[in-house]
C-alpha cells in the first residue's frame, strides 16, 4: 500500500454496501473476504457476484468458524442500527440482525455460519471458482504449510483484530515465522495494529508483501468521511516513504530484515 | 472439567458442611483434601467417613504442615463467624475457631495440625486406606519424583492460592517441569489462577490432566448462590470449548504443547 | 569531556550566532555540524568560513537528509521567534523561517536541504576541505563500515535526539556494536540521553571516545544563562570523576567493559 | 542471623554511642566497620579500642573512600542534630559535623577520610592487628579475588545501601557470582534490601553465610525503641524459620540453590 497503484481493498461479506455498489465506485483492485454460510447456495451465489463484479481474489476467513466471545457486544446488545443492513444478503432475507438479549451479531453468526468449516470447504471453493484464494487468519508455521499445500494463493497473518480469542499473539510477533514457513512460495500479508508508516515498514522488513488496515479507515471515515480516509491513507503513505528514506531504502526491495531490530534478535556483537 | 461428566469436587477438611452432608446432595466424583491432625485418630476417623461416603480419592496437602503468615488474617483477627463451624469436627469438639488477638485460623492450625508431616505419614495413610492418594502442593521436579516414588496416585501442582509462602512461582510457570518429571506415570492437575476457559486450555496444553478452581466458585456462590456457581461453571465450559474450536482442536487429545506459546519458548525461526 | 581541556563544542549550521561570533568568544576546540543545502555554493561558503574561523572538524549529519515528522512542531506551528535568525545564512537571504500553517522548520528544511545526500557528497566535501570529517547519525554496524571505508575521521552514534524517526534504538543500546565495527580505526562518539556523569562513564565503558550533550546545555542556558551552563558542565565533570573513583578507575584508560553490566550481558556465573 | 546465638552486630565508626558504651551493654559478637581517616593515628587508636572492647572482627569499607553524591543530604543540608556527636572521635575533636551550605556529612567526609585508600592500607591494617578483616563493599568477581588474595577473612557483598553510586546492581543480583569467585575459601555475607525472612532465605540459598540488616533496625528503633528492634528481629527469625519449614529445609545446610529460582536460571525443562 504505497501510491494508489499499490492500494487494494478487501470487502467484508457483511458490508453494508453491496458487492455491486462497491464495484461501481470505479476501478481498483478488490478482494472479497468470504464468510462461509451453512447454506452453500448462499456462498456460491456470493462467489458468482464477486466474479462478475471483477474482484481479483477471495480471502477465506479461517479464524472465525465460531464467533469469539465479545463481551462488550454482549453487554451492549450489539446489533446493526435500523438504517443499515447486510446488503449482500438482502435478497436472501439474511440481511438483518435481530435485536436480542445478548449480542445480535453472535446470534446471527450462530444461526448462519458453518462451524464445521474445514479443508474440504476450501477444496469445494476451489472447484467452483478460478479466483485465487488467500487464507486469512493464519498465525503459525503449521497453518501456513497446510494452507499452501492446499492451494492457498497467499497468506494473511491476522488475529481478527484480537476479537476472536484472548491471548492470541500480536500478528507482528508471528509474521516472521509465517514468512519463513511460506518459503517464498506465496505472498504473506499482515493485518492488525498497523497505525503508522513505521508499522508498515516493520511488516515489510519482516517479510510481508503488504499490510491491511481496518480501524484507521473506519475511524477516519466516522470522523471526516471520505476526506478523512484520504487523509489517513496519505498520512500512512508519507510516513512510510519517510521511514524508507530515513532508513536508507530507495526502493521496496531495499527494505531488509537488517533494517529493524526485533525483540528476539540476538545482540549484534 | 468440561461437561458435567468431567466435573469433580475436592472437599476441604475444614468445610462448613460435613462429609456426609456433601455426599447426600447426589451423585458426583468427590475427592477429600486431608489435613493431618496431630491426633492421628482424628485423621483415621476422617478417612473412614470419606470412604463410607463414597469419595473417590484423598488429596494429601503437603504444603501446609505450617500455616503461612497471612497478614490480613492477623490484622483482621480472622475467625469463623459464630453461625459457622468446621462441621467435620463437631463431634470431636474441634469444630470451632477461637476469637484471638491475631488470626483465629493460625491459632487453631498451630494447635491441631501436625507440623512434622513427612513421607512416613503418607506411608501410614496408605496403610489405613486403599483410596488413591494424590499429593497436593507440588511445585518442583524433585517433589514430583519423591511423591511418585512413594506411591502418589496423582500430583496437584498448587501453591495454596499463594497464601502459604511469598515468592512461590505461579503454578502455570512450573506445571510443565512437573509434567515432564511425572513422565506420564500419574496424572498431573493444577490449581491457582484459573479464571477463564483460556486458562484451562493453557494448563492442558502444558500437560495437565485437569484443573481445580476455588475462588470463581466461592465468589459466584457469594454473589448469586447455586445459580451463580452454575453460571461460572457454564462460562468456563463454554469458553474452554470455544478456545478449543478456535485453536482447531476437535478433542482433548488434539490439544498439544504447540497450541500455546510460553514465555520460555524459543522463537520459532 | 572532563576538564576544560577535554571540552569541545559542535556548532549547528542553524545556530542563531554566526560561526565568526562563536569563534570570537575565545579559544576552544570547535566542530561544525554541517547541513547540506541543495545549493552547494552555500555549503562551500560555510566550509570556508569554518576553516577560516579555526574550527577543527566537520561533522556531517547523515540522518537528516529529510526532516522527521515532528508532530509537536506541526501542531505548534513552530518557527523561529522574530528576534532570532539563522545567523550563518543572513547574507544569503536564507536566515529566516517563514511562519506557515504547519512547521516552519519543516518548510524551510524541505525548501533548502538536499534530500539526495549520499556518499558522493562526502567525497565532494573531502575534495573541498582538508578538515577531518566525522559522520554523525550512525546506529549500525553497516553504516559504521561504510563511513570508515569512505574516509570518515570519526563516528558519532546519534539518533538525532530521537526526533527523526520513531522506534530508532537508544544510542547507548547500539554503541557497543558500532565500536566493535569501528575496530579502533577511528574514534566513536555518542550523543543522546547523557544527563549524568554515570551516563558518561557508561558510554566510555562501552567504548566511546567521548560524548556530546545538547539539552542539558540548552536547558541550563535557558534557566540561568552562562552560569547555568557552567554549573551543568561542572556537575557532569564531578559526577563522572566520582563515578570513576567509586569504580576504582584512576585514569580514563582504566575504564573497561567489565566496569558495567549491560542488559545483553550473560550472567557471570 | 537466626536464634540469638546467630546474631551479631557490626558497629559503624560513626556511631553516636562509643565502642566502649556498646561493649558494656553485655555479651555479643561484634564487628567494627572501619572508616580510614587521613590521619592513621586516628585509625590505629580506633583499632586498639576495638580490640580492647572485645570486638571479633573489623569490616573494612572499600566502597566509600569517597562519599557518594547524596542529593537529599545536600538539599536538606544534612548534619547531625546538636545533641548527637560521633562518640568515637570526641577526644580527638573530630566528633562534630559542621552545619554547612550543602551536606555536613559530605564536608566532614571530604575533610577527614582518605580518598587514596588502597590495598597497601589493608596490608598496613593487617600489620597492626591480628583481628580478622572482612572486606565490605564488594560487588564483583574481580574484587572478590583481590580481597581474598590479600588476606580478607570474609567478604560482605554490599552497595552501601545504594547511596554511594547510582546504577550499582542490587546486592542479591551479584551475590552468586561473588560466592562462586570466593570458592568457599572465606564466608560471604550480604547486606542491602533484607526486609523479610524470605530475603534471608534467598541470600542463603544463593550461598551467603549470613546477612546484615540496617534500615529495619533503625526504623523499628525510631518507632518503638528497644521493643521495636526486638520485634523486627523476632519477625525476621520467625519468617525465616517458616520459609525454611515450607521449603522443606530442616537445617541451614539443607537450604540449597535448588530451593529458589533466579531470574537468570534456565527453565528446568
Automatic annotation (TrEMBL), chains A, B, C, D:
InterPro entries from the UniProt entry: Aldolase_TIM, Alpha-hydoxy_acid_DH_FMN, FMN-dep_DH, FMN_HAD, FMN_hydac_DH_AS
Keyword Oxidoreductase in record: yes
Reactions listed under catalytic activity: glycolate + O2 = glyoxylate + H2O2
Alphabetical UniProt keywords: Flavoprotein, FMN, Glycolate pathway, Oxidoreductase, Peroxisome
Names of required cofactors: FMN
Gene3D superfamilies assigned: Aldolase class I
Domain FMN hydroxy acid dehydrogenase, chain residue ranges per copy: 1-265
Localization per Swiss-Prot or TrEMBL: Peroxisome
One MF annotation (Gene Ontology) recorded for this entry: FMN binding
Recorded family membership: Belongs to the FMN-dependent alpha-hydroxy acid dehydrogenase family.
Protein name, entry field: (S)-2-hydroxy-acid oxidase
Native organism: Sesamum radiatum
Amino acid at each position: 500500500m504505497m501510491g494508489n497503484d499499490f492500494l487494494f481493498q478487501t470487502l467484508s461479506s457483511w458490508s453494508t454496501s453491496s458487492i455491486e455498489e462497491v464495484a461501481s465506485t470505479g476501478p481498483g483492485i478488490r478482494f472479497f473476504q468470504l464468510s462461509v454460510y451453512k447454506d452453500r447456495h448462499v456462498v456460491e451465489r456470493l462467489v458468482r457476484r464477486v466474479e462478475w463484479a471483477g474482484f481479483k481474489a477471495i480471502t477465506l476467513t479461517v479464524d472465525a468458524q465460531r464467533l469469539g466471545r465479545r463481551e462488550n457486544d454482549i453487554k451492549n446488545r450489539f446489533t446493526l442500527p435500523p438504517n443499515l443492513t447486510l446488503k449482500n444478503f438482502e435478497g436472501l432475507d439474511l440481511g438483518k440482525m435481530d435485536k436480542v438479549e445478548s449480542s445480535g451479531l453472535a446470534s446471527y453468526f450462530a444461526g448462519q455460519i458453518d462451524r464445521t468449516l474445514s479443508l474440504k470447504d476450501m477444496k469445494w471453493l476451489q472447484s467452483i471458482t478460478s479466483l485465487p484464494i488467500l487464507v486469512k487468519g493464519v498465525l503459525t508455521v503449521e497453518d501456513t504449510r497446510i494452507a499452501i499445500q492446499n492451494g492457498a494463493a497467499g497468506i494473511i497473518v491476522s488475529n481478527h483484530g484480537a476479537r476472536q480469542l484472548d491471548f492470541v499473539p500480536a500478528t507482528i510477533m508471528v509474521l516472521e515465522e509465517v514468512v519463513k514457513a511460506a518459503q517464498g512460495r506465496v505472498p504473506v500479508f499482515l493485518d492488525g495494529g498497523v497505525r503508522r508508516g513505521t508499522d508498515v515498514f516493520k511488516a515489510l522488513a519482516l517479510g510481508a508483501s503488504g499490510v491491511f488496515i481496518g480501524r484507521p479507515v473506519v475511524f477516519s471515515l466516522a470522523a471526516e468521511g471520505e476526506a478523512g480516509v484520504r487523509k489517513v491513507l496519505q498520512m500512512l503513505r508519507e510516513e512510510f516513504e519517510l521511514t524508507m528514506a530515513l532508513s536508507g531504502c530507495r526502493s521496496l526491495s531495499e527494505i531488509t530484515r537488517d533494517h529493524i531490530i526485533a525483540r528476539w534478535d540476538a545482540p549484534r556483537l
